[in-house]
């Protein structure tokens, strides 16, 4: 799946491909895995996720990346590794691309996302249930782009991250209210969004 995204702030010095990790074991078990204690070493790609990446790479029609940065969670690392191997690239772990921390809901059923998103729609600064605020996620995710824009020029950078952080970042880059991040079309596993 591919989505094109146009920046509200104008042109970038680099081209960015935003990729959500492939279907994971956490997705398969319908669990929230959002902390480094669980996410770094466990809950990698599922068989479905492996198949998604195989199909994606066989039919790649996006610009070829020149650099790959990824969340250091296992599911994003495995996703990035498959792409890096395909294109002969090095990986660069980037902790700012990690999953949003869902606090008290860590390890619980993913139906609890709705509780958090209901609060998000009212207040992007909230930390109910011990979650990382939308504003904090937006700041760290946009910080990755800002750092790359200062350091690089004319590169095609693949950023491999997670659904909620990517949707929050896209909402921020579009200069929309952060409370509206769940109003965006959901980013599916192994989908790529191109920033123009």
What does this structure look like?
Pfam families: His_Phos_1. The chain is built from seven helices and six strands, in the order E-E-H-H-H-E-H-E-H-H-E-H-E. The chain has 196 residues and is of the alpha/beta class. The chain has one domain (2-195): 3-Layer(aba) Sandwich (Rossmann fold). It has a six-stranded mixed β-sheet with strand order 1-6-2-5-3-4. The protein is globular. The protein starts with a strand and ends with a strand.
Short descriptors:
196 residues; alpha/beta; Rossmann fold; 6-stranded mixed β-sheet; disordered N terminus; Histidine phosphatase family protein
List the helices and strands and how they pair.
Layout: E1 2-5, E2 15-20, H1 25-29, H2 36-39, H3 47-58, E3 67-70, H4 74-87, E4 91-93, H5 113-120, H6 134-151, E5 156-161, H7 163-173, E6 192-195
Parallel strand pairs: 1-6, 2-5, 3-4, 3-5
Antiparallel strand pairs: 2-6
Helix pairs in contact: 3-4, 6-7
Main β-sheet, spatial strand arrangement: 1-6-2-5-3-4
Radius of gyration: 16 Å
CATH architecture: 3-Layer(aba) Sandwich
* Residue fraction in strands: 5-15%
Number of continuous helical runs? 7
Count of distinct strands: 6
Percent helix, as a range, is: 25-40%
Could you say what the CATH topology is called? Rossmann fold
Query: What is the highest CATH level, the class?
Result: Alpha Beta
Per CATH, the superfamily is Phosphoglycerate mutase-like
User: What is the average per-residue confidence, as pLDDT, rounded to a whole number?
Assistant: 94
The shape is globular
Q: Structural class of the secondary elements?
A: alpha/beta
Task: List low-pLDDT spans.
Answer: 1-9
Tell me the series of helices and strands, N- to C-terminal: EEHHHEHEHHEHE
Main sheet makeup: 6 strands, mixed
Distance between the termini: 17 Å
Total of domains: 1
Pfam families: His_Phos_1 (PF00300)
InterPro entries: His_Pase_superF_clade-1, His_PPase_superfam
Protein name: Histidine phosphatase family protein
